[in-house]
Amino acid sequence: MAKQTAAPPETILHQNLPLIEVAEPWLLDTILADAGAARCVVTRLSDRVAVVAPGQLDTLLARLRKLGHTPKLLEG
Amino acid sequence: MSEFELHFDEYLSYANSDELKSMARMWGGRGNERKYDAIDLIRSGLNDPKRVRAAIERLTPFERTALELLGWLGGVAPAAALAVGLRASGIELPKARTWSTHAISELIQPLIRRGLLLTGDARNPASFYETYGPGPMVFADERLLAQAGPLTPQPLAIAPAPEPTASLYRRPPTVVMEIIGVLQAIEKIGGLQLTKAGAVRAGDTRKLAKALGWKPEGIEVDGLRFPNPAGVLPIALYQAGLLEQDVDRLVLTGSAEQFARRSYVEQISGVFQGFIRAEGWREWSANTWYDDNDTRYGQARLALAVMLAALPVDSRAFLALDDLDQALFDRIGEHFSLSFLAHPPYPYQKNAEQIKREQEAWRVKLRQDWLGRERQWLQASLTSWLYYLGIVELGLVDEQVSSFRLTDLGRALLHPELGTALEAPGTGGAGAWLVQPDFEVVVYLDRAAAEQIAFMERHAERVQAQQHIARYRLTREAIYQGLESGTTPDELLERLRGGAAADLPQNVLATIREWAMQRERIALRRAASLLEFADAAARQVALDSGLAGTPVAERFILLGPHVKYPATARVDYTRPPLASLVALEDGRLKPVTQAVDLLLRPQLDRWAERGEDGEWRLSAASVAAAVKAKLPIDELFELLRARLTRPLPPLLGVALRAWAGDRPRAELAQITVLRCTRPVVFTAIASSPAFAPYLRGTLAPDLLLVDERYVEPLKEQLAWAGLEIAEVLELKQS
Known about the structure:
Shape of chain B: extended
Strand order of the largest sheet of chain B: 4-11-12-10
Mean pLDDT of chain A: 90
Helix content of chain A: 25-40%
Order of helices and strands of chain A: EHHEEHE
Strand content of chain B: 15-25%
Oligomer: heterodimer
Distance between the termini of chain B: 70 Å
Strand content of chain A: 25-35%
Structural class of chain B: alpha+beta
Strand order of the largest sheet of chain A: 1-3-2
Largest sheet of chain A: 3 strands, antiparallel
Largest interface: A-B, 48 and 54 residues
Radius of gyration of chain B: 39 Å
Low-confidence stretches of chain A: 1-6
Low-confidence stretches of chain B: none
């Protein structure tokens, strides 16, 4: 998946990475408090951005819709 | 939609000489040409429009109707359907040669030998054999079809029925609105998955029904039953060219808005033809065992369509369903049935009186069977798909459908020669609808352009449709789905205003804006490009140099679309993750290569404890904690399967499942065993009644379990038998 390098690379481009991005930090807190949604999220990069497990974006979307959210789905 | 190229040229060389000689006669052949001379004659004839026109003028009414009918069906059709359609046309047909001549062959074979049709059998396209089952497809050359003209069946002589007390009909805007709704629903659910056999998956049919608010078994349209519309409409829309196959899914060929721009006749004629061709769906069923893969229902629909095209055109009077039924029976009843068709009586070694009497009895039986089956189907056809598509108006007496007539749309579709003027679709603009403060939208179907109806179908939920108006409701869900389909909030409001007869209520405006804002608060990015820097300073340098993107946390930049950056490493998350770990039996996970993706560490942190030197350790505590947090243990195995460079040690696999709660049972006890490696001696001891009280069972082919209480008596018994007893087991090292 990644080129192997001995020393840490200076810059890494993470391509085709599924992300969730929210307008306010408390919103991500709320989402991650739900076990079903949290299961789809691998790690939180910042207070407003988290990495979604590859292949789990549609599951997360369905879960968020069930929780009453109306997320915007973006390709890139 | 046809898989055939409607040209004979490529097929001719695979036809037999005899058949080619017969086909070449239409183009001046004498019947004694050599094979390739006959092919040249046919090819040159087809390539000359004047000769084609002249040849068609020489055709018999039967031959000409066959070409017209095939042209009406798009140039290709199942042979059996074409035969039934020809019978329904009322044209004089070739006489059956013998009592046992097959109903399809006797019509299709002469057309092939005449040079008007070929079959889809590429190895032998000019031979036709009637077989059980769906049978072959036949097609005509498009150069013949181009000059065949419109379908002209023998007109039916049906007397007008009494004027009904009430009638039901659907107007073209309502029909188009429904079709647009179905197309948009298919788009919204991401297309329809196909099985390997090419049918829509049952789950996706149910999904479509759910998206449209339909019960899977059927719907009622103005009180009339329409069975399984979610099952048939995708087939009809595909046949109409509105859906296409994209690998293993059916998807829209163009947008619903593009469909909306066509004329009513264009919009509905393709779907009408699609219904005729739809297999695997029935508007009515007797549930008999005799089921010819539903192809008979398509044949029956074609026959009915031909009958509708043969209706009297000089009157707008209603016609009795019973009269149409009798006329259909008269034309096809002796040769066609939705179920088993009783054969005519055997005529040989019988006198004329006997034959006449038996044939009359046979016809009475046929009619009785027909009334219990095809008559029911006919009524269901008129009240389901033909009504749904707005092709027939149904006359009611005592709330029962008893008569019908073609609508203007039906006349325009089935009698294009009449040039029936249809009401023009609305031209759009203001006045198409009224938006009310309770979020209900009343759409005036006469005024709304089809594109406006498509807009409303996409952004609101239809709650009711009547002849002239449709009621929609602006809901959060519908607005969300509309925005997700690509409409911007400004466009949405602009188009809503643009079609409105009055100003939009303020509360509706404010609420739609609020719904649009809510959608902006959470974004799910399916395939983001995120640039990771070694530290915040390095990122700042990149930002200062003008790199376009959004800073995330301290070391990341979310790149805008199409932004390129020469990164020193790349990770593509659509590809399998890098296998970079080795698992040891004690639970340690040692990195053997450097994985720089953003997933590995957090995923391992869920299951393992971080150790020194970049190692992780899976332990009973770490695994139990993850399971307690409701993580499924299979997720860990999937992670290890993807990330380990070597197989997981089996014992660690056992331990991981045990730590997750799946504890296998093992038994440990101190026992005394008697071992004897000579099979003869072992068998003698194991089967001896004298030894039986001292033994508890056999552990292995040379090993007996001794009852602890009787070790001493056993020794004595062994000594009596002369065995030498060793006190230790001699085990071979493996």
